[in-house]
Amino acid sequence: MKSKKFWTYQFKSFLPIFIFYLLLLGLIKLLATLYYLPKSFFWDTFRFSFPLLVIWFLVNSYQSHKRVQVITKEKGISVNNPIEAQLLHNYQLHQRTAECTIHDLNNQQKEQLDRIEMYSHEIKNSLTSLQAATENSDPVPSKTVLRAVFQANYHLDMLLNDERLAMTKNDLDFEWINLQKLIIEILKQNSSLFISRQLVPQLDNLSNILVLTDRKWLRFCINQLLSNAIKYSPNDSTIYFNWVNNNLQIIDHGIGIKSSDLPRIYDNGFSGKNGHQTIKSTGMGLYLVKKISSQLNFSLKISSKAGHGTNANLHFPGNNVKKG
């Protein structure tokens, strides 16, 4: 943009401010006359304020001119005045924001597709192992069928809840839930695993405890924490469900978690060294539970020591707990 044209539009844009300044000086002159103030009062006001106004105008004009030059040089776009330059600048900011948003959405979509592929692969593995068992043994042992069906159902449930989690804000139904009854329902659902592994559940201090939250998502969280406890517990051991100071504790005496793994157990896809030593894991369970708890009214904390088991805590705020 030519300098002459730039300064013409710059003066035009500055004109309202200059008119306001003159009106303000006129008001000061009027007040000085009405109150018989010395003439030097008005002229001192003008003498000290006008240079500041000029300096502000020059600095503002310089910055506008530099901005116009940068925009014109980078984009090769011709602008005719500072207003057009500012509009173009704003447009480019919005464009960059939109590009970042699209980039983030593409990354989220890629992660989602990767998770779907991972879950599908695990389900396929379960069905393949079952198919291999039918080819090598007739009849197939019920434990083998049960294990394959449980693993397929587990990963399918993870996949569905991973998809639903994106819509939880519009799909929440808070109610008072009897915690002991809910845990018993979950234990019945997993009873065949307890029997096959000779595991014993023990419930303490849960009688008449009511918590206010979403039943579906709380059930998923407890079931996921229980699944981890079952997977990593030795046969013929006890899994504890305790209620202590508004905390639901799910405690096992399994292989535990190495201290080096603890900071990353909530990461997407992280399964840890101990997890790889026993059962193949997607590393999504604790990630989803942590994500759900952050969107609801309870929190998750895991404490563990390698070789000494794991304590999973769901903490509920006091005003969301009562006895019924």
Automatic annotation (TrEMBL):
Q: Where is the protein situated, by its record's location annotation?
A: Cell membrane
The record's Pfam families line, in alphabetical order, gives:
HATPase_c
Picking any one GO molecular function of the record gives:
phosphorelay sensor kinase activity
GO:BP terms for this protein? cellular response to phosphate starvation
Annotated coiled-coil positions are none
Q: Give the primary localization class.
A: membrane
Its membrane topology is listed as: Multi-pass membrane protein
Which superkingdom is the protein from? Bacteria
Where's the Histidine kinase domain? 118-320
Assigned GO CC terms: plasma membrane
Q: Please list every transmembrane segment annotated in the UniProt record, as residue ranges.
A: 12-35, 41-59
| Cited InterPro entries | BphY/WalK/GraS-like, HATPase_C_sf, HATPase_dom, His_kinase_dom
Q: What is its EC number?
A: 2.7.13.3
Give the catalysed reaction(s), semicolon-separated. Answer: ATP + protein L-histidine = ADP + protein N-phospho-L-histidine
Q: Which organism is it from?
A: Limosilactobacillus fastidiosus
Return the protein name. Answer: histidine kinase
Gene3D superfamilies registered for this protein in UniProt: Histidine kinase-like ATPase, C-terminal domain (3.30.565.10)
Which PANTHER family does the protein's record reference? HISTIDINE KINASE, PHOSPHATE REGULON SENSOR PROTEIN PHOR
Enzyme's top EC category:
transferase
* Record keywords, A-Z: Cell membrane, Kinase, Membrane, Transferase, Transmembrane, Transmembrane helix, Two-component regulatory system
